[in-house]
Amino acid sequence: METPTQKAQAAAEAAARRTLAQAALLAEMHSTARPWLSKTMRRPGSKPVLVRLDWPGVLRVFDPVTGECLARSEAGNPSQLEAGFVPGHNAGAE
C-alpha cells in the first residue's frame, strides 16, 4: 500500500513526464527548419569544419568545402559517434 507521500511523489513524477513530453513535442515542431547551432570552427593547425546541432540533439560535423559529413552523433549524446556511421558520406550541409 502506498503512503500519501509516495502517492504525491508518483503524481509529481507523472506530471513531470507529461510536461517533458509536451515540451519535447513543442521543441520538435519549432526546431526542424533550422539548426540550433551552425558554426564554422577551426582548431589551430587544422582545416575548418562546419559544426551543426539539429533536433533531436544530433551533432554533425561537415567539411564546408565538399559537404561531406565527417562525424555524426547519437541523438541527445553529442560526444557519442552514431552507431554504424560511415565517415565521408555526403549528407549535404543543408
**In percent, how helical is the residue content?**
25-40%
Task: Please provide the ordered H/E string of secondary-structure elements.
Answer: HEEEEE
Unreliable stretches (pLDDT < 50, length at least 5) are none
User: How much beta, percentage-wise?
Assistant: 25-35%
- Work out the helix count: 1
Question: Can you give the mean pLDDT?
Answer: 88
Structural domain tally: 2
Based on DSSP secondary structure assignment, what is the total number of beta strands?
A: 5
> Can you summarize the main beta sheet?
5 strands, antiparallel
Spatial strand sequence of the major β-sheet = 1-2-3-4-5
Rounded to an integer in angstroms, the radius of gyration calculated over CA atoms is 19 Å
Helix and strand composition category: alpha+beta
Intertermini distance: 55 Å
> What gross morphology would you assign?
elongated
Summarize the structure.
The chain is built from 1 helix and 5 strands; from the N terminus they run H-E-E-E-E-E.
Structural write-up:
By secondary structure, the protein is of the alpha+beta class. The protein folds into two domains: 31 residues; 61 residues, no CATH class. 30% of the residues lie in helices and 29% in strands. The chain has one helix and five strands; from the N terminus they run αβββββ. The protein has a five-stranded antiparallel β-sheet with strand order 1-2-3-4-5, with no helix packed on it. The N and C termini lie far apart (55 Å). The model has no long low-confidence stretch (mean pLDDT 88).
Q: Helices and strands in order, then pairings?
A:
Layout: H1 4-31, E1 37-41, E2 49-54, E3 58-62, E4 69-74, E5 77-81
Antiparallel strand pairs: 1-2, 2-3, 3-4, 4-5
